[in-house]
VOC family protein (Tianweitania sediminis), 309 residues
Amino acid sequence: MLNQIQGLHHVTSMARDAQDNNSFFTRTLGLRRVKTTVNFDAPDVYHLYYGDERGTPGSVMTYFPFPNITRGRPGTGEVGETVFSVPQGALGFWKKRLVAQGVSGLSQSESFGQKRLAFHGPDGDGLALVEDPQDARAPYLGSDVPADVAIRGFHSASMRLRDGGATEELLRFMGYEPAENSGTIKRFAIKGNGADFIDVETLPGAAPARLGAGSVHHIAFAVENRAKQLEVRKALADTGFQVTPVIDRDYFWAIYFRTPGGVLFEVATNEPGFDRDEDMAHLGEALQLPKQHAHLRPYLEQSLQPLES
């Protein structure tokens, strides 16, 4: 069993409109845009990162906004819901705020002994807030959301699978322990960075998901550094997984592999961080380009959709 994984690092999803996406995560949810860059493989598309003050691993939601992309179809073989942690008693504030801003799909419930508020992002994204009194992480204080109710970071992510057995075995191998069951959902936990839970929902009769706007593209798990990442890569490869070489993503190094249930996993380093090319006080304000795409700056600054702060 691995001991290098520290919980979630980031979750990357797809969107249709960059400004709508930016407005939702910065204005509605009160997160900080910590990086404005482009997709490494499609540089005419933004890669937008939202999180806490520093973009701490375990707090960062990222998006590829592809103009004119069709909406995804929810189903099995995907991360169906991304869940953020808020303080005890915060859901009343959030329900009023989300209703006032016309957010759709609101639904209150209780799961695993915690109160939760589910809702949709701009493209039907499956999102939720969970009250977690044990979460001591500091929130981003640069929005109009009061500190005592602000988002702390990720709480969990929920995968929908036709058969969860092999993926559950993989999670155990990665250091997660079975925690609780709630109906068809099994929770796995790790003592990590605060973003410590993965829920596996088994839906044997459900149709497979179709990737599109509102879909999670991949989910990333955190390791401290490149040495720990290489240990994880070797262990996964030795177990039979087809793992990519280490890829430099400027703000972290990444490896990827496809899980038995169809979900794309990434293992990302906590180093070097989002301040490697920007001062901490101005994260996300200017367009940053990977060196291989630096020559495209004049074109990209004209063609990419302008983003309001």
Observations:
- The CA atoms of residues 6 and 192 lie 4 Å apart.
- Residues 226-239 form the longest helix (14 residues).
